[in-house]
Amino acid sequence: MELTKHSLNLFFATLFTAFFLFTISSALKDGETCVNDKSCDSGSQCGACNGNVTELPKCIRIMPHNPVSKVRGLPFNQYSWLTTHNSFARVGHRSDTGAVLLAPMNQQDSVTAQLEAYLTSGKEYKIHVLGVLNFSVDHQNGVRGLMLDMYDFEDDIWLCHSFHGRCFNYTAFQPAINVLKEVEAFLEANPTEIVTIIIEDYVTTQSGLTKIFKASGLGKYWFPVSRMPSNGSDWPTVESMIEDNQRLVVFTSKSSKEASEGIAYVWRYLVENQYGTDGMKNGYCPNRAESAAMNSTSRSLVLFNHFPDTPDLTESCNHNSAPLVTMMNTCHDAAGKRWPNFISVDFYKRSDGEGPRAAVDFANGQLVCGCNNVDSCRAKMRFGDCNATEGSPAPAPAIGASTSTTAAGRGFKKRFADSDGQQLQLGWLKWTGNGIIVEVIGVLLLVN
Ligand SMILES: *[C@@H]1O[C@H](CO)[C@@H](O)[C@H](O)[C@H]1NC(C)=O
Ligand SMILES: *[C@@H]1O[C@H](CO)[C@@H](O)[C@H](O)[C@H]1NC(C)=O
Ligand SMILES: *[C@@H]1O[C@H](CO)[C@@H](O)[C@H](O)[C@H]1NC(C)=O
Ligand SMILES: *[C@@H]1O[C@H](CO)[C@@H](O)[C@H](O)[C@H]1NC(C)=O
Ligand SMILES: *[C@@H]1O[C@H](CO)[C@@H](O)[C@H](O)[C@H]1NC(C)=O
Ligand SMILES: *[C@@H]1O[C@H](CO)[C@@H](O)[C@H](O)[C@H]1NC(C)=O
């Protein structure tokens, strides 16, 4: 018996080591040449812009660094958030009416996947024999701003991509409450995250929006209009928004709803540049018609749109790369030297590597600590004192303390980061060719 127990321990020790070696070697960093998404670190995908055969695919980080995990005490208007334009218009979506959709599609994944964060900070995952893994994981894709078009339809409110303010079966995606429930689940699971919803509002039903927000369970996270500065002064700090659990900021494009339903009229609080193709002309950043001038400092938030009139999956890779950052600089100057709080794009995952993620990290670096990447920001540092860390490789997002937990955390982060976890497990099975590994993973899944 002794011998058996001993060999069993030895066996598990070996297995444990093999497991960590595997997970360490499996995670390729941002910028490294890769073969597929699963070979990249979590929050990254493998790719290159189309049409360039000389370029090898590399790991491209999708997920911005979480600025709030760096510094929490700043006003809401001193952070920048990755924002998806028509977040609900997902490629391949079938209309819930059953009709074939004849509407443009702007994104590649669901709102849940865009917000994605399956693991919460400091949660403990116990493995019987191997001990305790303790990982705290940031958001995975990190979208925090959603632009949603809402219409009256079928005695309900639907997410629709339509014209003349009317929704049709072939332009209707799904009832808005479905997506609001996804946001609710995210806020519930992530008590330090803040989400902003910007509604292109065609709803005329009285209290229609109020009704679906209440029914979705989002009412309890509502950030009240009374706390929003309408004269250009600073917003409350994100820390206070988190403490008060007022972590949902909602804007409507219908001014009357501020008085009637307590939903903030968007252009009273932010300026935004022209959307669509007209907003993508080099060196030029006019405000959209409904917005005050970009340099109106009586609005404390700045929204930066950068997408063409017609969403284009192939071209988005280029649009979301260098031109995005160039135009962000143009709009920064036009907005009275203000960096955008919301960076809104189509197909947010597509870029050559320096895309929406890089733009958000850059804007947050500038806003939070005066550096070129928010990853350089440290609590209590002097603004602009970037010397210590600037240029050093970006570490993986906050993971548990010791080396071994970091390695394991990364391995499992990968498993959770993938929207199709089952498939990834199979990948491990194939790769290791070891049924026992799968058994260990099984134990993990059972007890976490
Ligand atoms: C293709 O990729 C190479 C290497 O990254 C780059 O030098 C070249 O400019 C790219 N060509 C095009 C047309 O984007
Ligand atoms: C539109 O879809 C609804 C189901 O949501 C269906 O009852 C109705 O007949 C459809 N209308 C048309 C014109 O296809
Ligand atoms: C796990 O992490 C959390 C937060 O980082 C910490 O509070 C907790 O004590 C840790 N647990 C162990 C067993 O290290
Ligand atoms: C803006 O309004 C707030 C109260 O809502 C006030 O405290 C602040 O002084 C005002 N700022 C300016 C610049 O008028
Ligand atoms: C704001 O921008 C407008 C152009 O949109 C310009 O005419 C005006 O001088 C600017 N105001 C300030 C204070 O810079
Ligand atoms: C940062 O580095 C530059 C030169 O590399 C130096 O002149 C400057 O004083 C440094 N700033 C701080 C705050 O250390």
From TrEMBL:
Look up the signal peptide feature and give its range: 1-27
Q: Which GO terms describe its molecular function?
A: phosphoric diester hydrolase activity
The cross-references to InterPro entries, in alphabetical order and at most eight, read:
PI-PLC_domain, PLC-like_Pdiesterase_TIM-brl
| Entries under CDD domains matching the protein | PI-PLCc_At5g67130_like
Q: Which UniProt keywords apply?
A: Signal
One short Pfam family name for this protein? PI-PLC_cat
Which superkingdom?
Answer: Eukaryota
A single GO BP term for this record reads: lipid metabolic process
Protein's recorded name: PI-PLC X domain-containing protein
